[in-house]
């Protein structure tokens, strides 16, 4: 079994409050869940225009796992209301 983790550092556009930030992040996380992964806001929770999104997935084929994480990264990168600043990826396998 392989586990994949993705951390996405994003900058939001015209956001003026934490409540507005949360309402902007909800559909992003919902869309990621529809892709079959676990996703949550994992950092920068108190900064209004920044967020760290954590994505995790498990699978038996490492290539399919990479494809799934690529799909999640593309989904966030293609959003017009977010700027993807950085991406960190880790894959854990049977040897780890």
The domain count comes to: 1
Instruction: Give the CA-based shape.
Output: elongated
SSE pattern: EHEEHE
Mean pLDDT level: 93
| CATH structural class | Alpha Beta
Instruction: Identify the CATH homologous superfamily.
Output: TT1725-like
Put simply, the count of helices is 2
Content-based structural category: alpha+beta
Strand order of the largest sheet: 2-3-1-4
Relative strand content: 35-45%
Helical amount: 25-40%
Structure description:
The structure is a single chain. With 96 residues, the chain is α+β, with helices and mostly antiparallel strands. It has one domain: TT1725-like (Alpha-Beta Plaits), CATH 3.30.70.1120. It is built from two helices and four strands; from the N terminus they run E-H-E-E-H-E. A four-stranded antiparallel beta sheet has the order 2-3-1-4, covered by helices on one side. The relative contact order is 0.33.
Show the helix and strand layout.
Layout: E1 2-12, H1 18-34, E2 38-43, E3 50-59, H2 62-77, E4 82-92
Antiparallel strand pairs: 1-3, 1-4, 2-3
Write a brief caption for the model.
This protein has 96 residues and is α+β, with helices and mostly antiparallel strands. It is 34% helix and 40% strand.
Relevant terms:
96 residues, 4 strands, 4-stranded antiparallel sheet, Alpha-Beta Plaits, alpha+beta, elongated, 2 helices, 34% helix
